[in-house]
Specification:
The complex is a heterodimer of chains A (257) and B (290).
Chain A (H helix, E strand, L loop, with lengths): L1 H18 L2 E7 L4 H14 L3 E8 L1 H9 L5 E4 L5 H5 L1 E5 L3 E8 L6 E2 L1 H9 L16 E4 L5 H10 L10 E2 L3 H10 L3 E6 L7 E3 L1 E2 L15 E2 L2 E5 L4 H11 L15
Parallel strand pairs in A: 1-2, 1-3, 6-11, 7-8, 7-9
Antiparallel strand pairs in A: 3-13, 4-13, 5-9, 5-10, 5-12
Chain B lengths: L2 H45 L1 H5 L4 E2 L4 E2 L2 H32 L5 H12 L3 H20 L6 H25 L3 H9 L4 H12 L1 H17 L2 H7 L16 H8 L11 H25 L5
Antiparallel strand pairs in B: 1-2
Helix pairs in contact in B: 1-12, 3-6, 3-9, 4-6, 5-6, 5-10, 6-9, 6-10, 7-8, 9-12, 11-12
């Protein structure tokens, strides 16, 4: 019985190797998983000799995995360091808007960029200070590994950190749910079509319009990274995924209007 | 080849297989301890043992790696969960085995077992919707807190603890209970002096298993504890545990990244705590019931 099972295992793995000889591993930002998973089945049908596996783990992990040859394609909305970028090719997908959402009881739907900076850094502690109700500001943030947080700290906070008293949620979904259910909460999410029950804040003169999402000034630039010496099929997969028509469905807008 | 020879050969093959499986398991264990231990040792040599274990500030990007807030967070959450869950689980076990008709027992066990199988992320979502607002009303603040994490964990470990307590209570011979009642003891006296006393050891063992489950839980805790890296000022303040912080930082500190080995240290601390609990269970489990 044991030998039969052993023989079957060898036969199956041998068959697997002979028919699907290439394995490509994709790893990184969980924000890109839906787009990649939407496009992959059709791509795999067109390339039956290739097997593709996809895992999340975050933008930093994706970049590290590619540079250390633990993955072939890294999904990241964080710009790699100069040293790291030298050995890599990037295939940008477009712009993924990052929206600032507030709980409905804040009484505020518009802030200036300096106000937003102070709110996110924890310098403003009450919504009354920006024209809202008498409610404490509760900042809800993503962990340090998040690409959206990286953009916020670089572009809005100009190198400062998000409030150290911020509530940390791992995913876009959990952050959205937390802001919706916590009086006085302010957070940021990568755009998703089902944002209801929260106030999407206008910042300065910019108001998010989903029909012209690429004009919104706060966005991450999700990119697929491959090593320069990667096989042609890996580069082809990255290029094909970066041109996927599914991008629009998941809120990724073309870089140029 | 005779039947006897065939049997001997089969036995030899089985013996070799089991030996190989056991050796593989032991090797995996050593590899696990070795990898974490080596990573932790390198980290301690660079950053110092005391500064890591007793340090109060944690910001891996700035090179601050104090883990005390997470150690305290883990202990506080586990303590709250156990204190809340234990009496509840004991009540379930006593009600199921001694109060309700015997024919209900199987149904109750199945229902409790199905609760024990709920994935932790579901408890996390439930915690966000129900427990966080409740804690906000009780203690003020945001509701994301050590208390909320303890309450969610309590709900998670009650089914496991109840099942273990039910199994323990079922081991008490019927004649002991009947004998106690026949001698004139009240049902309460019988419960306290006969039933609970005779299953004290398995109940303590069940409690330790539940503590282990609470200490190791990650996802549900991360969703409701708030994720702040400071020492929590009260049980109603946000905090973090060793497991929830590993989850938060695993994307930031992948293998090869500067500071990655702090995750090895956190994992090693958890492993040591779990090992301590296992030793405790073995010690208590080794005693005779009663």
């Amino acid at each position: 019985m044991f030998f039969l099972l052993w023989w079957m295992a060898i036969w199956v793995s041998h068959k697997g190797i002979s028919e699907r000889s290439v394995h490509i591993a994709i790893s990184g930002s969980s924000a890109l998983l839906p787009v990649i998973k939407e496009e992959l089945p059709a791509w795999e049908i067109r390339h039956p000799e290739v097997r593709v596996s996809v895992t999340g783990g975050g933008s930093w992990a994706g970049l590290a995995a590619v540079s250390q040859r633990r993955a072939d394609i890294g999904m990241s909305d964080i710009v790699p360091s100069e040293t790291m970028a030298r050995g890599m090719l990037g295939y940008p997908l477009g712009r993924l808007p990052v929206l600032f959402i507030g709980n409905q009881c804040t009484g505020v739907n518009k802030v200036s960029q300096p106000q937003l900076q102070q709110l996110l850094a924890g310098d403003i502690g009450n919504w009354r200070q920006v024209g809202g109700g008498d409610t404490s500001v509760i900042v809800v943030s993503r962990p340090l590994s998040s690409g959206a947080r990286f953009m916020i700290e670089r572009q809005i906070l100009k190198g400062r950190s998000v409030s150290p008293r911020a509530i940390i949620q791992l995913s876009n979904g959990a952050l959205y749910k937390t802001v919706r259910g916590t009086p006085g909460a302010l957070g940021y999410v990568e755009w998703r079509p089902d944002l209801k029950g929260v106030v999407v804040m206008a910042v300065g003169s910019s108001r998010f319009d989903r029909t012209r999402g690429n004009l919104w000034p706060y966005y991450t630039e999700p990119t697929l990274y491959v090593r320069r010496d990667a096989p042609a099929i890996v580069k082809q997969l990255a290029a094909d995924l970066s041109h996927s028509p599914a991008k629009a469905k998941f809120g990724i807008y073309p870089a140029q209007p | 080849m005779t039947v006897h020879q065939k049997n001997l050969r089969t036995e030899r093959v089985q013996h070799a297989l089991f030996l190989a499986a056991a050796a593989l398991l032991i090797a995996l264990g050593f590899a696990f301890w070795g990898t974490l231990g080596w990573g932790a040792l390198r980290f301690f040599l660079r950053h110092g043992l005391n500064r890591t274990i007793l340090g109060l500030r944690y910001h891996p990007i700035r090179g601050q790696f104090g883990l005390l807030p997470f150690i305290i967070g883990s202990l506080a959450v586990t303590l709250i969960a156990t204190v809340l869950a234990y009496p509840l689980a004991l009540s379930v076990a006593i009600t199921a085995t001694m109060v309700l008709p015997r024919r209900w027992l199987s149904g109750i066990r199945q229902a409790v077992a199905s609760l024990a199988a709920i994935p932790s992320v579901i408890f996390g979502w439930w915690g966000l919707a129900m427990v966080v607002p409740l804690v906000r009303n009780l203690g003020g603040g945001t509701g994301f807190s050590v208390a909320a994490a303890g309450m969610v964990l309590a709900a998670m470990i009650v089914p496991t603890l109840s099942l273990l307590a039910i199994h323990a209570a079922m081991r008490v011979p019927e004649r002991w209970v009947e004998g106690s009642l026949a001698l004139g003891a009240t049902p309460d006296q019988t419960l306290g002096r006969v039933v609970l006393r005779s299953i004290r050891a398995p109940l303590v063992e069940a409690g330790i298993v539940a503590v282990g489950r609470a200490l190791g839980e990650t996802m549900a805790v991360q969703m409701v504890i708030g994720g702040q890296t400071f020492m929590p000022r009260s049980v109603f303040a946000p905090g973090s545990t060793l497991t929830s912080e590993i989850l938060n930082d695993i994307g930031l500190l992948p293998p090869g990244a500067l500071g990655h080995h702090v995750l090895d240290v956190m994992a090693l601390l958890l492993l040591l705590a779990m090992y301590g609990l296992v030793l405790l269970v073995e010690r208590i489990g080794g005693r005779e019931v009663g």
